[in-house]
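Quarterly update from the structural biology core.
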Amino acid sequence: MRTAGEIAAAVRAGTVSARDVALRALAAIDAAEPALCAVTRRLGERALAEAGAVDAAVAAGRDPGPLAGVPYGVKDLFDVAGLPTTAGSALYADAPPAACDAEAVRRMQAAGAVLVATLNMDEFAYGFATINARHGTTRNPHAPDRLAGGSSGGSAAVVAAGIVPLALGSDTNGSVRVPASLTGLYGLKPTHGALPMAGVFPFAESFDDAGPFAGSAADMALAWQVLAGQDVGTGAPPRLARLGGRFRENTDADQIAAIDALAAGAPLLELPDIARARSAAFVITAYEGGALHREALARDAMAFDPAVRDRLLAGALLPRALYDEACAFRDAFRAAVDALIADHDVLLAPAAPCVAPRIDDPFITIDGQRVPARADLGIHTQPISFAGLPSLAVPLRRAGGALPIGLQLIGRRGGEAALLRAAAAWEERGLIGATVPVIEDVGEWA
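Predicted structure, tokenized:
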């Protein structure tokens, strides 16, 4: 699969039809599934209808949009007209179908993109592993015996496998950035509230954001332009800083080396009260998730994924006073962080703390202790969500067939353009960049 930019240019020029591109993506899904376990629904009829509309626009001399004919998938919590929005749960498999597309999906279609699939996730987005009781565990295209990360693991996997060049996920505490890091992609969590969440099944609304995955900095900038309506533009060289303290612990050596090389001489900033921030984030997430599902849990708790059910039940039992205290601390924390980073455009930190864990041993080591990957892969992303800041996961270039791992480029509120410009500059210099296969023969995945 070529990049989104290449596909759109070829479709607009008439050198390839959107229908042929869609058919290739659908065939790639068929070849990859069910082994990859990334796709929950293959949307062949819709894809060919959308591709036909793009081809008709080209034939009539109209511009179909910046994503003309680009195939993409969405995490299975975005509303897709005519389908139940399941959020990865059997509980809603037979729910009434969505009356219309989520706003982010509508914007993608208006730009000429072609929706080919809904994608696997942790049930109700509660996890960092994409271990799903109904659909199975999504595999990492770089190492099929390892996790793809979560909760947007299906979205990451289809891009990392070269099936589509773009996919949409959601990020509450790291659910885009963690799988992007583990599968070697670019993944964006925008400033909280910057992208539309209408028609997206919530997890914890205090932190939920929609975000795209891409295989290149240019494709990520294109997705941002479509979803946010903002060009990346140009600007002065970014003022860099490195995050210290807990962000220098529980890391891969390559992450620290890359941070220090990319931001040589940049100041080392330490965010205040990181441990308390992460604890407060857990409280708010659990409380809001538990409140959202309280009635369904009371009605039929056994219908939930057992690993998710217990965490939601615990959240539903949290006292309101504890939640209010965590929210008050969040306001103070955000003000302190905003003041600390006011003179910097891009902060560098690790994304996931390690490479993808094995599926048959889904644990990681944090502070010398083995802990569940499903709960703790977000140790470096969760505090950034708590602060409400934009964060772009970028893939490191690693030699010798090493498994992927990534960094976070973190900005001030509304500072996505600076992050995207920095990523593009470092990619051009060969310092970062994804390794995504170009699939010309879908038999490569057979």
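The mean pLDDT is 96.
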